[in-house]
Amino acid sequence: MFVQQFFVGGLAHSSYLLGGTENCAIVDPRRDVGIYVEAARRMGMRITHILETHLHADFISGHLDLARMTGARIYAPKSARCKFKHVPVAEGTHFGIDDLRIGVIETPGHTPEHISYVVSDKARGDEPACVFCGDTLFVGDVGRPDLFPGKARMLATKLYASLHEKLMKLPDFCEVLPAHGAGSLCGRAMGAKRTSTIGYERRYNAALQIRELATFISSLTNDMPPAPDHFSRCSAINGRGPALVGSLPKIEALGPTDFRKAMAHKRAVVLDTRDYQAFAGAHVPRSFHIGIGGNFPTFAGWVLPKDAEILIVADDLATAEGAQAKLRMVGQDRATAYLDGGIFAWAKEGFDTSGVRLITPRDLASMVRRQRGMTLVDVRAPVEFKAEHIKGAINIPAPDLRRAHKRLNPHRPVVVICSTGHRSSLAASILKRRGFGEVINVAGGMTGYSAAGLAKECPVCMAPHLPRFMGA
User: Fold this and answer.
1) Where do you find CATH 3.40.250.10 in the chain?
2) pTM over 0.70
């Protein structure tokens, strides 16, 4: 038996190649499937199976693209009632790949249709060697059951049974291979380690130590992190079958004049992917700003309007194409053009630009001391804000400003701060789109504020492997 993990940073998604002697399966594939074809080629294996544990909420799966490229059969939960051609599997289903025996157990809770694949390596023994448990069991955490309105308590009850009556019945040495790791919003407190064992999780996973059902349900249905907008959209797309990547348009280079004409289309939005310092200096008016680093796809799926025609501003064509690929991960398939020549070319045409004032942490401390007429908005997650914040700040997570901007006075200076300056730049762009006049971003964020000796270190911001709100 051979297992290779593929990890997508930002999304914190893990997919796997499960190989026998000559053939292999791909488990929970991402949308850019060429990586699996190349890995199988290097191993001298043929991809014959595509295994889906559930209808993923946080990304678009590559099962249809991979099936078309390889001829492999797609295996998916029977209860999902998927609309594409597949092999429906349920509790008790068994199938083989060379010397591998794969059994299906139903593990609902994170989603209603969730299943797990239990693998035995018959060349070595009959007992389960590993389990592909999707989003039911993570390293140090369990799947969140609150993604379906009105069903959280019911799903939490099923999750409890899936964990204790199914997965915890596997041998202690059985390897746990989850679909996500630290940083994903499919759970709340995932560990940084990307794999584990049943025995280790049985002993040290905090959620599994809660044996009283009512307490377990309460712990997973209260104070959960927010679910991004695209979660429900991705589940539906994965169930009916996403568009094949080959059918989607390639990105087109538009000069400033044509780019400005494209902006006039009803569904057009401009997405600036440069670093926040560059965005602050000059940007196309009414642009969204999401830096290409960090958790770009999640924030793009979260804040960009559904079915938007996305016009990209990037440092170069390669970066724009990379942004387009990341947008497709979360179902934003209509990234059609980028600004050829960037802001330099735009400004040379005499077109208007906008900007965001950047200040240092010491500048902010001075403003706070003097009680100047400004509003300080901390745009981090509530858990970060609770851990450490500046006195007088109000907490509105960056994506929430799309609606919660109504709580703020657009005629008063607004200072936004996050952990480093990235999320606060997104927040600034949202406020600028809403007509706020003076928006100020704190370079370095709370990390810089504490480094300057102006506050205690935020334990959430400073822990690089904790499942923070979505990165910097």
Assistant:
1) 248-348, 357-451
2) yes
